Histidinol-phosphate aminotransferase (Streptomyces hygroscopicus), 371 residues
Amino acid sequence: MTGIDDLPIRDELRGKSPYGAPQLDVPVRLNTNENPYPLPEPLVARIAERVAEAARGLNRYPDRDAVELRTELARYLSRTAGLEVGVAQVWAANGSNEVLQQLLQAFGGPGRTAMGFEPSYSMHALISRSTGTGWISGPRSADFTIDVDAARKAIAEHRPDVLFITSPNNPTGTAVEAETVLALHDAAQAARADAAGALVVVDEAYGEFSHRPSLLPLIEGRPRLVLSRTMSKAFGAAGLRLGYLAADPAVVDAVQLVRLPYHLSAVTQATALAALEHTDTLLGYVDALKAERDRLVAELRTLGCEVTDSDANFVQFGRFEDAHAAWQGLLDRGVLVRDNGVPGWLRVTAGTPAENDAFLDAVRELMKEKS
Ligand code: PMP
């Protein structure tokens, strides 16, 4: 049988496995930071309408620049994220993963490096590698915040071309202060003052769940600062695959050099536009999930777990001598959470109240066993 390594595959891909959490069929799935609420029926009906309309034109390529969709995304950000932005400042792609890939294709690449503060979203490193960009793992404190002095030192030493700041951070849930983002942005520009500076990507995939306001206003007057967002979490539309960025119009011009023509299908654009018409209903679910997230933090602490403060729709909890055994113990009780490989810690996504109750019952049993 032919294996991958028998093929003339790129050397750096030999022996690698594809990224992805297990998709197991268990009663309570709280492992991939999805929104547990299905889209409301009136929105499902509106999607069907919009998609039917799009279907009549599927013999043609879609709007290559997705102008209507970007206009609506700009309106959404302007209304909710603290800064008025226009269509020229917004770009959209198939999930924020594709947004990040396009940014690395344009600003990373062979001979260049990207840096992030780990543990963080592991796709930052993986997309860096797959675009030929060197990866540098920056430091994080024991409480999972970013120590500005240590981070500044690492930036000055490694002089990354691209700097990732994830806020709220995955898998820890930790939000990053605006002052920290500004300090790291300035350090990254200073380190590459001899080139054209560095691109700083604030990954705000979980921004809507934060106790704090969005970091969007920081892009003003900083053409090298990019905010990345997604409809996968707050809009409850992980299956849609729609991510977007807000930045200086020059950044949008730059990603257009690497995007595939017609990368966003007409069906995707129609579906996303329908979802944006129902923003207020969907943000109502976000409020419910934030309350459940806060309840998970409080109750896990009552059960004797250590819990990292969370600004996301998930919670990092521990500490377990053997996190993988604890993960298995919860799975045996019908609850799937995520083992991100952070020693001692697991991550649970906030689900419906019933799912969270089932999870908390399973943890209660596990903690009893432990003591
Ligand atoms: N950024 C972060 C921090 C994430 O956790 C995720 C999804 N897990 C993404 C980006 C990518 O999300 P999507 O491609 O669905 O927009």
In short: DSSP finds eleven helices and twelve strands in the chain. The chain has a mean pLDDT of 96. The radius of gyration is 21 Å. Residues 33, 95-97, 121, 166, 170, 203, 205, 230, 232, 238, 243 surround 4'-deoxy-4'-aminopyridoxal-5'-phosphate (CB under 6 Å).
